[in-house]
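Subject: two folds for Thursday's group meeting

Dear M.,

Sorry for the delay on this. The cluster queue was jammed most of the week, so I only got both jobs back this morning. I'm pasting them in the order they finished. Each block is the input sequence followed by the predicted C-alpha cells. Could you check whether the formatting survives your parser before we put anything on slides? The first protein is the one we discussed after the seminar.
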Amino acid sequence: MNFQGLSAKYRRLYQEHAAWRLMRADNAPHILAFISDLFSEHSEVPYGQAKLLLDAQIEHSRNLGIWDTQTNASAYLNQWIAQGWLRELDDLLTKTDATEMALRFCRGFEERTINVSASHLRIVQEAVRDFVVASDEDIDSRIQLLEDKKAAIQRQIDDLNAGVVHKLTDNEQREYIREIYQLASQLTGDFRLLEEQIRQLDKDIRIEMIEDDNSRGNLLGQVMDRENLLAQTEAGSAFEGFFQLLCDYNRVTEFREQLHFVLQTPAAKYLSAPQRQFLSDLISELSRESDRVLRIRRRTEQELRAYIESGAMAEGRAVSKLISKLEQLAVSLRDGDCKLSTDIALCLPIGKVEISSPDTMRLKQPDERVELGSIEAHVNSRKPSQTMLDSLSTVKVKEVAQTIRTQLRQNSPQTIAQLTQTHPIKEGLEELVAYIRIARAVQATELNSEEQVIIHDPQGISLQAHIPSLLFSESLFPDDIEELAL
C-alpha cells in the first residue's frame, strides 16, 4: 500500500477507533488510571459502585489540584460508555476491547521485554516445528520430525537418570517467568474481542431483519449460520479450543498446580506483586471470563430468536413502511398546491387514528420555527443573593453549646425546658434541634419523662413541642467546645 493509502487508513483509525480516541482524550491519564484501578480485582463492577468510587476520586483529585473538573461521575461514566470505552449490561460495567488495547499499550512502557531472547526463540522454533509436523503431507518427513523430538526428550531422561541436572541461570529464569506472564496477560484481551464480535453479529442480523423481507424460518436459519460463522472467526475458534481445554478437569488441575509451583520458585522474585497475584488467580479469572462470554452468547441468541418468533419485527416493518408512505403522500399534496383542509375518508386497518384532513397530520419536517424573541438570558452570579442568605441556616450549634455550658456553671444540672426559660428559643425548630444534637453529643442523661418546650421562629410564631427530658451538667462538656462531634 502506498503512502497516500496508509495515510488515509491511519487518519481513519485516528478519528474512528475507540482505543485511539481514548489515548488522545484530554483527560486520558485520569480515565485510564480509574478504569485500571476499578477492574484490578474484578472484571465486572456494579454501576452504582463505580459511580461512588469515581465521585470520591474526582473530589480528591480536585482538592489536590490535579484534575480540575466540574463534571460529575454519572456524566463521565455515560460518556465513556457512549465512546465505547466501557460497556454496561444488567447494571454491570466491563472493559471493552478498545480499553484493553489502550491499557496494554500503557503497560508496555514499564513491562517492556527484550524479544531477542532465548525463550522467544525457543517458542518460535517449537511453533514452527509443530506447524510443520501438522501440515507436512509427506508422512516420512513427519515421522522423522517426531522421532527427532522423541530422541531429544530421551536424551534429557538419560541425563537425569545419570544424575546430570541442567539448572537454569538467573537470566534464563527471568526470561522464562516473564514470558509466562506476558503470554498469560494477553488471554483476557481475547475475551473482549470475542464479545465485540458477538455484539456486532447481533447488530448485523437486526439490520438485515429490517431491510429484508425474509420469512421467520429464513431468518432463524441466518441466525444459526451466523453462529457457525462466529465459531470460525479468529477469536471464536480460539475461544472454542480454549474452552475445551478449560473443561478438561485433569488438565486444569495440572495447570493450577504447575502455576502454584512456578510462583514458589526463586524466579518469582523477577515479577512484581500485581504480576504474581495475576498468575495466582489466572485459572479463576479465565473461568469467570469464559462464563461471561457464554452468558452473552446465550442471551444474544435468545433475544434474537424471541424477537423473530414474536412477529414484532415484521409488524414494526409494516407499520414503518405504511407511515412512510403516508408522509410521502402528505408532502406531495402540500407541494402540489392542494387544499390541505379538504375532508377525506382515511381508514387504517389497525388501531384508532383520527385524521380528518392532511393538514391534521404532523410531518417529520422541521418547518416550524421556534420564536426566541421573548426569551431573556439569565446571567449567573458568583455572589449569593440576600434571599439565598436569608434561607440558609442561622443557628450556630457550637455557639449554642457554649451558651448552655455557661448557663450550667450557674445553675447545674438543667433540662432543655429549664435552659430555654432563661434563654428562650427564637430561631424555631432549627434551634431546638441544635439543643437535642448537643445533648446527644455530650451524652446527656435521658429521664423517663417528657417535657414541654415553647419555641419562637424568626417570624414571631410560637410553637409548642414535646421532647424527651434530657438532663445536662457542666461536667459532661469538654474544656474545648471544638472537640464536640456536632
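Second protein, same layout:
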Amino acid sequence: MEIRILGAHNLETSSTRQVSILVDDVLALDAGALTSSLSLAQQASLQSLLLTHSHHDHIKDVAALSVAKSYLASTVNVYASGHVIDMLRAHIWNEVVFPDFTKLPSVDTPAVKLHLVEPYRPQAVAGYDVMAMPVDHTPRVVGYQVTSGEGKSFFYTGGTLFLGNVDRLLS
C-alpha cells in the first residue's frame, strides 16, 4: 500500500497544501489538496474519496474534482456521513455555486456518486475494507480504518477535539 500525503495543513501557501491523502492512486482521504496536487491524468485514476467532515480544509477540492470527473466522463465515489453529504448538497452542488454533479453529465453516469458511511459498519471501497469510526471534533467527524487486500491497514482521522490550553494539561 503506497500512501502519499498531498497536504497536511489547514491553510494553503506556495509551500503548503490543505489536507489530503492518496492511497495507491485510487483512493483519497479528504479533499483539501486533490486537484491542486494531482494532474488531470492522476485525477482520472481516482476512484473513491473518503471525507471525514465538512471543514473547508478537508473538502476544498471536492467541487473542482467533480468538474474534472465530468470533463473526463468518469465517476468518483464519495463516501461521507449524512451530515457531510447534506452540506455538500446544500452548499456546493446546489445549482448556485456549482451544478449538481451528482446528476451530471447524466443521471446514469454522474461525475459524483454519494455514499453514506455509518460508524462501525465495514464497507468495500475501491478494493479496500473501510470502516468509519466517530472522532471527537466539531463538527461531527469520522475517522477511517483502511485495510488492503494484503491485510495492511492504517487509521486516519481528519480532526480531533481541540484541547484548548495545553499548558494546564501538562501541569
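Two things I noticed about the second structure. Helices lie at 34-37, 40-45, 56-59, 62-72, 82-91, 166-170. Strands lie at 3-7, 20-23, 27-29, 48-50, 76-80, 112-116, 123-125, 128-135, 141-147, 153-157.

Cheers,
T.
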